[in-house]
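hi! just following up on the protien thing from before. the input was this:
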Amino acid sequence: MSQNGKYLLIFILVVIALTPLGLIAEGPAWGEWSVEEIRSMIGYVPQSIETTKPLISAIIPDYEISGVSALMSTWISAALGAGLIFGVMIGIKKLSKRAS
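and the predicted 3d structure came back as:
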């Protein structure tokens, strides 16, 4: 692994380790608002959000896994999210190499 790769891995692990800080934050996470929260913040809900929001469902709703503590659920969610993004990036890299 390159030096940059090691730094990136350390950064990702630190961010995953710090993810549970969101448990002590008040209110919803930025950008994770419900339709009702959007309506109360800006007074209306844009048509595109109102029609597409019900179509999107989370893999791990509210970052909670039943039978697991909130802290562990948050870490598992962060690790799975990072893993999915990493997998997608590897797939894009392989496809771009194949195309060239």
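The mean pLDDT is 86.
The CA atoms of residues 31 and 90 lie 26 Å apart.
cheers
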